[in-house]
Specification:
This protein is mainly beta. It has a domain of 111 residues: Neuraminidase, CATH 2.120.10. The chain has 1 helix and 23 strands. The strands form 6 sheets. A 4-stranded antiparallel β-sheet has the order 1-2-3-4, with no helix packed on it. A 4-stranded antiparallel β-sheet has the order 5-6-7-8, with no helix packed on it. It has a 4-stranded antiparallel β-sheet with strand order 9-10-11-12, with no helix packed on it. β3 and β4 form a beta hairpin. The radius of gyration is 24 Å and the shape is globular. 34% of the residues are buried.
Length: 299
């Protein structure tokens, strides 16, 4: 049978060569991608069954939720302003996010079904990247409210009261994430590097006490390290780094040791977040002008 199939294939190829007219040589052309749909900032629900994310699939940045396998996508917000960087509350009943619907970036909360919107920050400066404490009592976030330009890390009660600045860096401190017991905060710090060719910038991952004291550089690497996220048990930190030429997802112990690359790809992989059981990491993969959501199973 195999010989007969091969003979038939050869005969068909020969027939095609005899009957098909010669085609002119194609000119060298580059195809241009014209769609730019992005799905970004994914976050697992506390029970691990859903993923919250932002997308511009409607032509505007809105918030969506889907099952953890990517099915059953539902839109949660619908507003002319941009709604971005969502974060689940620990009990899954609400989520915090950023919107400029009042004229500048503010942090809002709403119920998981998209109802009962509340502006928590109500400040003329830019407030961004909210992250809940595991007990749901506090939210850590970025703000430029002290000088209008420099992002620092703040905390506030879950109802928006008692905002408190906890970092004082000459340039940005961003992407804060609280440890499971609430005693520490891991974050990205931008540093000035002065050398013979002038001043450049580097991004490192730091950890500090929840009150902002005792900041320690965990990565101490010449490349950009960012987007840190505590594992659910507090023993590891996931992050993204361009130390392998393109941004990839890495995991290290909470003290900065045993750095391991999770996924090796030629694409830009950023913004990792853990599943509640610590067995998966969801992240963004950026390629050809678009951003999509991927999940990797850990060993």
């Amino acid at each position: 049978m195999l010989r007969k199939d091969l003979a038939l294939t050869a005969a068909l190829v020969g027939l095609a060569a005899q009957t098909s007219p010669a085609l002119p040589r194609a000119a060298h052309r580059e195809a241009q991608k014209i769609t730019r749909i992005e799905n970004a900032y994914p976050s697992f629900s506390p029970d691990g069954t859903r993923i919250l994310f932002q997308s511009n699939r409607t032509g505007n940045w809105e918030l969506f939720v889907m099952q953890a396998d990517g099915s059953d996508v539902r839109q949660l917000t619908d507003h002319p302003a941009a709604d971005v960087t969502p974060s689940w509350s620990p009990d899954g009943s609400r989520f915090a996010f950023v919107s400029d619907r009042d004229g500048n970036e503010e942090i809002y909360v709403m119920n998981a079904d998209g109802s009962e919107l509340v502006n928590l920050t109500r400040h003329p400066a830019g407030d961004s990247h909210p992250y809940w404490s595991r007990d749901g009592a506090r939210i850590v976030f970025n703000s430029t409210r002290d000088d209008g330009e420099n992002d620092e890390i703040y905390t506030m009660d879950a109802d928006g009261s008692n905002p408190e600045r906890i970092t004082h860096n000459e340039i940005w401190d961003t992407y804060a994430s609280l440890s499971a017991d609430g005693s520490q905060i891991v974050f990205r710090r931008l540093l000035r590097v002065r050398g013979p060719e002038g001043t450049t910038f580097n991004s490192e991952i730091f950890v500090m006490a929840a009150d902002g004291s005792g900041a320690v550089n965990l990565t101490k690497n010449g490349h950009f390290d960012g987007w840190p996220a505590w594992s659910p048990d507090g023993s590891q930190i996931a992050f993204s780094s361009n130390r392998s030429d393109v941004y990839q997802i890495y995991v290290m112990k909470a003290d900065g040791s045993d750095v391991t690359r999770v996924v090796a790809s030629p694409y830009t992989d950023v913004r990792p977040q853990w599943s509640p059981d610590g067995k998966r990491i969801v992240f963004n993969r950026e390629r050809e002008g678009s951003s999509d959501i991927y999940v990797v199973e850990l060993d």
